[in-house]
């Protein structure tokens, strides 16, 4: 099994405020996605909204959205955190969310037989 | 741009109990990973442990581990939830964790210029 290139991921869970309109939420997502193009250390980015109700799971703790980005190293995350465009985005996100959770990890991908 | 095949992801954040030994945690991870081979609807699986301290981010809310699995549909998650092997694993995980968070979503992958 070839060793995979090191990957570090940053998962953000966000609970947008009750009064955040769909347009304000959409704008925050767009601004987050734009960071991929301006911060070299940010390799990949995806996002989604909570759909727990579809599977009758009620353990999402009120978080409404997830954002996951990928870096080559912890230094890459630091570069992202320190980037001036990130600071601008962070203020926007903080102003529109009630709570945030950030989880940093190196994924171990389980090899599948299928 | 070709339309991607539908993908639904289930993210679990777990905080293992203080008295859960590394062996007990390792066993829980192994048992989770085994589900990929026994539950047809489960397409992919990866996990990781919290490394937030490396990037000076302190927003992980005490969660120690993340598990992410991938399905073709919400029905696939239901199949996973209803599988008897999942029920056995769930009891094991619940007995060793202080809290769990589950977030279900359809990822929107942002196309990169790089």
Structure description:
2 copies of one chain form a homodimer. Chain A is α+β, with helices and mostly antiparallel strands. Chain A has one domain (8-105): Alpha-Beta Plaits, CATH 3.30.70. Helices cover 34% and strands 29% of the residues of chain A. Chain A contains 3 helices and 5 strands; from the N terminus they run E-H-E-E-H-H-E-E. Chain A has a 4-stranded antiparallel beta sheet with strand order 2-3-1-4. The two termini of chain A are 16 Å apart. The mean pLDDT of chain A is 92. The interface between A and B is large, with 46 and 46 residues. Strand 5 of chain A pairs antiparallel with strand 2 (44-49) of chain B. Chains A, B: InterPro entries: Dabb, Dimeric_a/b-barrel, HS1/DABB1-like.
What fraction of residues of chain A sit in β-strands?
A: 25-35%
* CATH-defined topology of chain A: Alpha-Beta Plaits
Largest chain interface and its two residue counts? A-B, 46 and 46 residues
Gap between N and C termini of chain A: 16 Å
> What strand order characterises the main sheet of chain A?
2-3-1-4
Oligomer state of the chains in this structure:
homodimer
**Helix/sheet category of chain A:** alpha+beta
State the domain count of chain A.
Answer: 1
Gross morphology of chain A: globular
Overall pLDDT metric of chain A: 92
Percentage of residues assigned to helices of chain A: 25-40%
Record field, number of beta strands of chain A:
5
Number of helices in the DSSP assignment of chain A: 3
InterPro entries (chains A, B): Dabb, Dimeric_a/b-barrel, HS1/DABB1-like
Protein name (chains A, B): Stress responsive alpha-beta barrel
Organism (chains A, B): Vigna unguiculata
Subunit structure (chains A, B): Homodimer.
């Amino acid at each position: 099994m070839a060793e995979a290139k090191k990957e570090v991921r940053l998962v953000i869970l966000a609970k947008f405020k009750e009064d955040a309109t769909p347009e304000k939420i959409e704008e925050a997502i767009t601004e987050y996605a734009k960071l991929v193009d301006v911060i070299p250390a940010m390799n990949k980015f995806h996002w989604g909204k909570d759909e727990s109700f579809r599977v009758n799971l009620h353990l999402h703790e009120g978080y409404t959205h997830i954002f996951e980005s990928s870096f080559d190293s912890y230094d890459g995350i630091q570069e992202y955190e320190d980037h001036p465009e990130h600071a601008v985005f962070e203020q926007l996100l903080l102003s529109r969310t009630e709570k945030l959770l950030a989880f940093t990890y190196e994924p171990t991908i389980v090899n599948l037989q299928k």
